[in-house]
From TrEMBL:
It comes from the Bacteria. Keywords: DNA-binding, Transcription, Transcription regulation. It holds the Pfam family LysR_substrate. This is LysR family transcriptional regulator. Signal peptide: none annotated.
Length: 323
């Protein structure tokens, strides 16, 4: 067996789980990852080591001789990593960006992660958008964030990793007196001729503005002109009252005085949400976040696309890959 210069501990953890469970489905459930992702990690480890680690049949999974030989070494490496994390990994809190107060996806994942890892301190931060958060992640001033991975520049993505979490249905926030406000759901085509605000001009939310451009294309919807950055609910409501523009949002966007929030349909546009973190980050709080995201995505069917769901073609490959 010829070992490479470096082996990702995640791959060893996947291998040990399968070797102990002798079942890919049970091992995936134990690690809170998709079975496809677990199988991919085991195959990657086999490629890196240049050996076959398991004999797989339709009825059982058994370690090969090389798998048996690797198992005690892998357990020692993981035990040493756990000891290291116990000594230093919890010395500082994990800083988790939730984009904006009131948005449900990140908040629910964070809440569940705190339950899974009660001894870790996971602190919420609010950076407004993933583009802004990405720079903070790369600089080490944030540890994790949520948002649309495909909307980041390649240079930013190269230093980050991601895990798909949710297809979040999108909505439009309308002034109460808007002609479309009486509809329970607003067809995308009904916004033709409107100027809809989607963060244009805000350098921290470029991924969201780009998503809006894809959605509006071909529907006769114009992107509203840039506005001063509004921080806080009061300022957001004040600026919206001056412009009277509809605002592109998600269905969990918090209620604002003088407005109504209506789901968009025909098609149902989806905001692809990933958990994003700095490449190489090792922290028990991140492990808890990833487990929480996978658990909620499975229980709530967050990664199940409705038949009439829409996302940009650029996001298709991203969201189909679960690490």
């Amino acid at each position: 067996m010829s070992a490479p210069a470096h082996i990702d501990p995640r791959l060893l953890r996947a291998f040990v789980a399968v070797a102990e469970e002798l079942h890919f489905t049970r091992a995936a459930a134990r690690l809170y990852v998709a079975q496809q992702a677990l199988s991919r990690d085991v195959r990657r480890l086999e490629r890196e080591l240049g050996v076959e680690l398991f004999v797989r049949t339709t009825r059982q999974v058994t370690p090969t001789a090389d798998g048996e030989r690797l198992l005690p070494h892998a357990r020692r490496v993981l035990a040493a990593q756990d000891d290291l994390l116990a000594a230093f990994g919890q010395a500082r809190p994990l800083l988790v960006d939730l984009n904006s107060p009131g948005l449900a996806t990140g908040r629910r994942v964070l809440h569940r992660a705190r339950e899974l890892a009660p001894d870790c301190e996971l602190m919420a931060r609010y950076e407004s958008g993933l583009t802004g958060a990405a720079a903070e992640l790369l600089a080490g001033r944030l540890d994790a964030s949520f948002g649309r991975w495909a909307g980041l520049e390649p240079a930013l993505r190269s230093g980050l990793e991601q895990q798909p979490v949710r297809y979040e249905p999108m909505a439009v926030v309308l002034p109460e007196e808007h002609p479309l406000a009486d509809l329970p759901r607003v067809p995308v085509a009904a916004l033709a001729g409107e100027e809809v605000y989607a963060g244009a001009g805000n350098p921290r939310t470029r991924e969201w503005t780009d998503l809006a451009r894809h959605l509006f294309e071909g529907h006769g919807i114009r992107l509203a002109s840039p506005l001063p950055l509004a921080v806080g609910d009061e300022e957001f409501v004040r600026i919206m009252a001056k412009t009277r523009n509809p605002v592109l949002a998600v269905v969990d966007f918090p209620a604002m005085p003088g407005t109504v929030r209506r789901p968009l349909v025909d098609p149902v546009p989806l905001s692809p949400v990933s958990l994003v973190w700095r490449k190489g980050l090792v922290h028990p709080g991140l492990d808890a976040l990833r487990r929480a995201a996978a658990e909620l995505a499975g229980a709530e069917q967050w990664l199940r696309r409705p038949d009439d769901g829409w996302i940009p073609a650029t996001d298709d490959g991203v969201m189909s890959v679960q690490r």
